[in-house]
Design brief:
Elements lengths: L3 H13 L8 E8 L2 E6 L19 E3 L4
Antiparallel strand pairs: 1-2, 1-3
C-alpha cells in the first residue's frame, strides 16, 4: 500500500545528511484578526517517536511556505 522502498530511501537521505533540516521553518500557527499566521519560535520539533512520556512540547515544521 505504501511505497516502502521510496520511504526507506528518503529516511536514509535524512539520516546521512542532517543539514537538510536547516531550511525548515519551525514555529506555531496563531490566529490574528480572523486570519491564521505562522509565528516562528525556538521550539524543538519531535522527530524521534514514540517518546518515553507524553509530556514533550513539540513544534510545527513547514518544509516549504505556501
Amino acid at each position: 500500500m505504501f511505497p516502502v522502498s521510496d520511504l526507506n530511501e528518503r529516511l536514509n537521505q535524512l539520516d546521512n545528511n542532517p543539514s537538510e533540516y536547516d531550511d525548515v521553518y519551525i514555529g506555531e500557527l496563531v490566529q490574528r484578526d480572523g486570519k491564521i499566521e505562522f509565528n516562528p519560535t525556538g521550539d524543538i520539533p519531535i522527530r524521534d517517536f514514540p517518546t518515553k512520556d507524553n509530556k514533550l512540547q513539540g513544534a510545527l515544521e513547514i518544509f516549504a511556505m505556501p
